[in-house]
Design a protein that fits this description.
The protein has 184 residues and is an alpha/beta fold. It has one domain: Rossmann fold. It is 24% helix and 28% strand. The protein has four helices and nine strands. The strands form two sheets. A six-stranded mixed sheet has the order 4-3-2-5-6-7, with helices on both faces. It has a three-stranded antiparallel sheet with strand order 1-9-8. Helix 2 crosses helix 3 (52-62). It is globular and about 45 Å long. The N and C termini lie close together (11 Å). The structure holds inosinic acid (IMP) and magnesium ion (MG). Magnesium ion binds next to loops. Magnesium ion is lined by residues 47, 50, 106.
Length: 184
Amino acid sequence: MPEPPAFSAAQNLRVLFTREQIQARVHELGRQIREDLNGESVVLIGVLKGAAIFLADLARAIHVDCTFDFVAVSSYKSGTESSGAVQLIKDLTEPIEDSHIIIVEDILDTGITLSFLRSHFEHHQPRSIRIAALLDKPSRRLQPIHADYIGFSIPNEFVIGYGMDYAERYRNLPDIRLLESASK
Ligand code: IMP
Ligand code: MG
């Protein structure tokens, strides 16, 4: 695993999506979600920590009645490689039975995390389950999983910023940047 670059150096890494491109796409996703919900309320369930910033922006782009909840899982212990096993570290705080839910995730990579969460939430019998992922790396998929809303599909590169980390850092970069040295 390479040494994490200094924050000032990370600010100069190549930009994959600018903050303006992200905002434009998040607003399109918000419109699409509003149409699909047909006036019904929804619970946005963010997957900590990576999806926190995406959820904050998406929530303000859907313009429907909604509540938030957050779960936390551990699958990436650190760095860029998955351990393969998902552990629920923090569960929901409100019941979701009979509610429409949207799982909000930063990246759909192998699909292991979202497959685990989808079946976890299915046990709570929500009225519907949808998945919104800001980024998708389809070439990495190990578990078949369908996301209803995808911001951007990207190749197999490791990215940071807009909530996404490398060894817990760089989540506060406003643009999405390529951490090329860590790509697999
Ligand atoms: P999955 O279970 O392999 O689909 O893992 C998805 C999780 O891996 C995401 O929620 C991210 O936390 C993490 N992840 C995957 N790719 C990247 C990346 O390029 N940058 C930062 N985190 C990533
Ligand atoms: Mg994550």
